[in-house]
Write the structure tokens for this entry.
Amino acid sequence: MFSSDDLIEAAKRESGLTSFGGDSYREGLEILVASLRDEANLTPVGENFLKGRLLNRLVSRLQIEEWYTGCPETEEVPITAPLFGLGLPRTGSTALSFLLAQDPDIRYLRMWEALRPFPPPSTVAGSDPRLTAPNDWALPAVTKHVPMDATGPMADMEILALDFKTVSYYGSARMPTYTDWLRDADLTSAYLYQRRTLKMLQWGEPPRPWRLKMPAHMLWLDYLINAFPDARFVMTHRDPTDVMLSVCSMIAEMQSAFTAEVDLLEIGRSNLLQWTTGIQRVMNYRDEFGDARFYDIDFRAMRADPIGEIKRLYAWLGEPVSPEFDRRMRDWWTQNSANREPRGSSDPIPFGLDLDEIRASFAEYVRRAERWTDHSRSLTK
């Protein structure tokens, strides 16, 4: 099994670079590697896959720091009022991000650049070779559950992975020590490094507002807003019993590709704790600071009238929906309608979950979500 020091030295050799821009990444990397070694029960395929992913993040960080050394003025590039998608997973947030990506006047995090952020796309002449590079996210266990393509939007977890404080690896292996540490970790440095990376990615491009997303942003709102003080949020909502069964089944299927034995009880425990914690933190934030930063979308409203829901979101943002944006959204929704995942019927018992316990755990959230989404739900009745 590889060590964190092995990975760091390998990244330096591969890149020919030495500066990681500080050592904020070390704690997360060391806890993650130890958790993989002691708890994950990785197969050779899983070990090789994760070693490559971790090495990729270290090399990318070295390259980003080298860019800033040669072009320090990148720090002055503004990022204004980014919109972050968050909420429980499996609530339509990926489809939402693909619809938003159809707006030619915004900037989103594309999969090919999230996995290989260096160099800034504007500096590459002709077709960018990253577009056709091997995509280690296009795995059957992933693509059957969510829409995905190289030029489509990618969740922010791969950028937060540059500081090794991310949910990116949870779908690959059992790692309770890392997952429990991460839930209460200080993500100040991770979000500041996300901002640093986004500035590099948009270098040389016309200024456009960012549309970003990751359900787990709920867990670390204070750190996110510290890095992006004018951030706004679109929050998606769905029945938590559907959410928990869907996400647990998906993670179990993903982990089965890389681990010798999938711990279903751990998946159930960890997800129930993770997502009740995230929801509670959002409710606490909204109790203290109000709802002004948030636009809420009900899963049923999104399915019934996706284009209308985006138009209502844009009205809230105070931005127009251009004819081209409207057309591209309709085309994408039509083209992908046949590929949308049918409603699952997972059994909660193997995950140690009880539907009544889930309902009780999320009861206050469900009550609030009914109020938060009343503007859209009423249109589906």
Q: What stands out?
A: The first strand starts at residue 83 and ends at 87.
